[in-house]
Design a protein that fits this description.
The structure holds two protein chains of two kinds. By secondary structure, chain A is mostly helical. Helix content of chain A is about 75%, strand content about 5%. Chain A contains nine helices and two strands. In chain B, about 50% of the residues lie in helices and about 15% in strands. Classes of the chains: A mainly alpha, B alpha+beta. The interface of A and B includes residues 53, 64 and 72 of A.
Chain lengths: ~230, ~130
């Protein structure tokens, strides 16, 4: 087999295993060097023979895939990473994302107060209530979907980088279950009473919570099917 | 530690499965003696084993890369014989790993030897 053909075939096999491009480049380069060394040492050796000494492309791809998996924390401890990992990680990312949202809201509020000053108090009460409603509505959507979608995406990326997509899908399933038990309730402010936002954990199957479950699963499915 | 089945040793069916983990041990040992690039390392394995270990030569590279990722080896591009080659050498962690692997290997050999010798001289069990 021609050396270029052999390289292309090996690249194809390695790509199929989902190994990262820099890893593939380096491996192919070193193998090509090795074949060249074999031919330099034994000038009568044909390229075909040199490649046979390296092993078949299938064997090399299998070896590379296996060794690449063994080198990561995730591949050595898949249950810890993709089963127990989400259980610990999701609450942490949820709290972090909420704190981030509060931080951003505080910065925006403080800046507006500095810039607009007294003009803020001149905003009509109805507009104010509408504004509050929309901010709360956005925050509600953010809290219910974004942290879980982000967690699922992180585990999918991790699974992709370590060629452990099925484990990543398991992690997405766990994230989905956790997303499904998050419950929120928004009560808009009225003239007499202030608005109320409730956030808790409960399993109360309804369409909203079903959508919450579906989002991390959709992220996992998209990664599994679409991302090379 | 004896590790999972390695393709390094599955290229030829002549080597039994309990040799798993041996490639890592051999690589760390030989690189500990002298930093080498992949081709030299493969030749060193052949020479030092008296050509008794047969394997697909290319399978040494994924193991080198994994050992490097695990910080047992470091690599550097060097000019060797007029060509730029990736030369590997063990790190301090790699030296410690070699000692551990070597001790494990000795225990495995000792255990297997004991079993084999016991099997030869022991009395057969009567049901």
């Amino acid at each position: 087999m021609d050396s270029r053909l052999w390289r292309d075939k090996l690249r194809g096999e390695l790509n199929q295993k989902g190994l990262p491009t820099p890893y593939i480049d380096r491996l192919v380069e070193e193998l090509a060097d090795h074949a060249l060394d074999l031919q330099t040492e034994d000038t009568s050796m044909e390229a075909q023979q040199a490649y046979e000494r390296l092993g078949t492309t299938e064997q090399l791809a299998a070896a590379a895939n296996q060794e690449f998996r063994r080198r990561t924390f995730a591949s050595r401890y898949p249950v810890l990473t993709f089963v127990l990992g989400p259980v610990a990680f999701v609450p942490a990312i949820f709290i972090m994302m909420l704190l981030l949202a509060f931080g951003i809201a505080w910065i925006i509020g403080s800046t507006l107060e500095l810039v607009a000053g007294d003009k803020l108090s001149q905003i009509p009460e109805q507009t104010n209530a509408q504004l509050e409603f929309w901010i709360l509505w956005c925050f509600n959507g953010y809290a219910r979907f974004i942290p879980f979608a982000l967690a699922a995406w992180i585990f999918c990326r991790w699974g992709q980088r370590t060629s452990m997509r099925r484990w990543a899908l398991v992690a997405c399933g766990i994230v989905a279950v956790m997303a499904g038990i998050v419950f929120t309730k928004t009560t808009p402010a009225t003239g007499n009473s202030p608005g109320l936002y409730m956030l808790g954990l409960t399993f109360n199957p309804n369409l909203r919570q079903l959508i919450q479950i579906l989002v991390p699963l959709a992220v996992g499915g998209w990664f599994l099917l679409r991302v090379p | 530690m004896v590790q999972g089945k390695s393709p390094f040793m599955t290229m030829k069916k002549t080597n039994p499965d309990f040799l798993n983990g041996v490639p890592e041990l051999l690589i760390l040992r030989l690189l500990g003696q002298k930093p080498m690039h992949g081709y030299d390392l493969v030749q060193a394995i052949k020479v030092s084993s008296g050509s008794k270990l047969e394997f697909g030569e290319g399978c040494v590279y994924p193991i080198l890369h994994r050992l490097e990722a695990q910080k047992y080896l470091s690599s550097r591009r060097e000019l060797v014989g007029g060509r730029h080659r990736i030369v590997y050498r063990p790190t301090k962690q790699g030296h410690r790993r070699l000692v551990e692997s070597w001790n494990t290997w000795k225990q495995v050999v000792e255990g297997v030897t004991t079993v084999l010798q016991g099997g030869e001289h022991g009395q057969p069990a009567v049901a």
